[in-house]
Structure formats: structure tokens, C-alpha cells
DNA sequence: CCCACTATTTATAAAGG
DNA sequence: TCCTTTATAAATAGTGG
């Protein structure tokens, strides 16, 4: 273990942990270690988010495990046929991402049906046909809710202050 | 606001930062705050992983923003038509997840072609037809590489030790 | 790849604006 | 919702087995 050496070596000046700049790690070994550690970290975080907030979280991590292997064993690096992409997936409720796309379409239909009722709270939610578009709508809807809440607060304040004066 | 009450209430014993148990957060406000903060945190981590390790990372976070809204404003909670799922997506190289599925199939073809060459290193990589299956293969391939590396180490050790004896 | 250790950095819960 | 601050908890880089 590390501890066995630690107490017989002179204390290092620093030689230890350091701040990491967010740029591609050049050293293949360090890069792989970082991928392994951080990959697990994100998986943990995603699971926590799912549990804490009841959100469905999907996580895809693509890595080229053989490319990585070749980095360390250059006897294969000349052969471009050596290629394997490995995918790590976490979905709280196990569904494929195609299924998630379908789910979004289905929900879009419900949104369309409910659109008339929702008009006053969310001016435009009928054009979500892809995951990418939904991203923009999240901001939009959040802003709309924000406006409503601000309005409610203002009106509540008016009610509270006017009787006391 | 909370602050308006805070200074007229007696100072709480600790009421400060505390360790969080990983279970669903009951209070809707706290849950939403946690979702917002942790969501951003994971997005940051995913981006960092992508930059640091050159990995393609896809992240899906589904939340029901209107369900969330209804949690706090129960005047809508009786109407099941109020439903909007919001999706947050990050992909380093912007691709839909259907495109990612196609990519996986294409790579599978390459894997199939290279299978004969790979046989000694990875006993079976021809049956990856979905993201879910790939997950199992990651562990499998990782173990295979582990075995090879262990073997190499052992042989290297034999070479190093036998001349000295 | 796994594990352990630990100094350091990063994330974040709680509070207030 | 956004922001800031701060104390605390968690993640992790570097090292070694």
C-alpha cells in the first residue's frame, strides 16, 4: 500500500494532487485513468439525481476501448480495422433511446391536445418534435413560469400591503 | 422570501449545510433546487469528461416541469392533462440518439469484419446490436484485456527473474 | 482493470438577496 | 428563476500495491 512507503520517504515538496486544466489529457495512461474515475463519478451523480429528484436520467458514454488499448500497445496501432466503441448506458427505467424518442412524440401529442388550456401559461409548446428542440423549450417554459410567479408575488404583495396602510 | 422570516426567528441550532441522504427529497422546493444545481453539475462533469478524455458523452435529463409546477401550485394538480416532459441533452458532437444507434450498428459491422483478427483478444464481439448489449460487452472486453495484461506481466516477471537465478 | 490513501479541488446545501 | 456566500461533503489527481 501507499502508506507503507509514505512514512519512510522524506516528505515531498508537493509532488501531489494539483489543479487540472480542462483540456484534452495528452498522456494516454492518465487520460484512461481520468476516464475511468470520472466516468464512475458521473454515473454516481446521475443515479443520485435520479433518486433525489425522481428524474429519469439517461447517460451515454462512448469510448474506444481498443483505440485506448492500442495507445498503450502500439503493435496494433497500424491496423485501422481494430475498432470497438463501447457504450455505457444508465437509464433509471430501462428503455432504449429510440423508445425515449417515441415517448417524446407521444407526449407531444398530449401537449398538443392540452395546448388550448395551457396557452396562458406557456405561449408555444406545440413544436417539440425532437429532443434537440425540447432543449430550447425548457428555457422558454422556465421563463414563462418565472414571469407568472413574479406576477403572483407582486399581486400577493399588493394584497398584503394595501390593507395595512 | 425566506430571508424576511429568518431574522425575526431565533437563530437555529445548526440549520446549515448537512450531509444528504440519497433518497427522494420530499419537499418540492428543495427537490427542485437540488435538481437545478445537480443537473448543472452533471452537465459540467459530462462536458469535462468529453474534453479531458475525448469521449463522446450524451446526457438526457427528463423532468416534468409542469408536474413540478403543480407541486407548488396545487390548483392545477387535479387535471391530468397538464403534462410536459422537458429534456435536456448534451452531445459533444451534435447527433440525435437515433444517429448514435445507427453509428453503433455501423461499428458493429466493422467489428464483425475484424472479428477474425480479434478472436484471441476478445472471444465474442459479434452480437452487439443494441446499446444495452454493448454495456455487457464493455465488462467482457475489459476483463479480457485485464487477463492479457496480467499474462504479460507474469511472463515479463518470468523473464526478469529467471536470468538472475 | 481493481483497490487504498490523502491532499487538494470541486460540488453543493442552506441561507439570503 | 437567477445570483452570492459559506460551511461542509464529495470527487479526484497522484501515487503505490
UniProtKB/TrEMBL annotation, chains A, B:
Coiled coil: none annotated. It holds the Pfam family SRF-TF. Its main location: nucleus. One of its GO terms (cellular component) is nucleus. Gene3D superfamilies: Transcription factor, MADS-box. GO terms for molecular function: DNA binding; protein dimerization activity. Residues 15-64 form the MADS-box domain. InterPro entries: MADS-box/MEF2_TF, TF_MADSbox, TF_MADSbox_sf. PROSITE patterns: MADS_BOX_2. PANTHER family: SERUM RESPONSE FACTOR HOMOLOG. This is MADS-box domain-containing protein. It comes from Gossypium anomalum. The lineage of its organism: Eukaryota, Viridiplantae, Streptophyta, Embryophyta, Tracheophyta.
Amino acid at each position: 500500500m501507499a502508506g507503507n512507503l509514505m512514512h519512510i520517504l522524506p516528505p515531498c515538496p508537493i509532488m501531489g494532487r494539483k489543479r487540472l486544466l480542462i483540456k484534452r489529457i495528452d498522456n494516454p495512461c492518465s487520460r484512461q485513468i481520468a476516464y475511468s474515475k470520472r466516468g464512475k463519478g458521473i454515473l454516481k451523480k446521475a443515479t443520485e439525481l435520479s433518486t433525489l429528484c425522481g428524474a429519469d436520467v439517461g447517460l451515454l458514454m462512448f469510448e474506444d476501448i481498443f483505440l485506448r488499448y492500442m495507445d498503450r500497445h502500439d503493435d496494433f496501432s497500424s491496423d485501422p480495422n481494430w475498432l470497438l466503441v463501447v457504450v455505457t448506458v444508465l437509464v433509471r427505467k430501462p428503455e432504449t433511446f429510440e423508445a425515449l424518442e417515441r415517448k417524446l412524440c407521444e407526449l407531444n401529442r398530449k401537449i398538443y391536445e392540452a395546448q388550448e388550456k395551457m396557452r396562458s401559461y406557456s405561449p408555444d409548446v406545440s413544436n417539440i418534435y425532437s429532443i434537440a428542440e425540447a432543449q430550447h423549450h425548457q428555457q422558454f417554459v422556465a421563463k414563462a413560469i418565472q414571469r407568472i410567479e413574479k406576477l403572483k408575488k407582486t399581486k400577493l404583495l399588493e394584497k398584503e400591503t394595501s390593507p395595512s396602510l
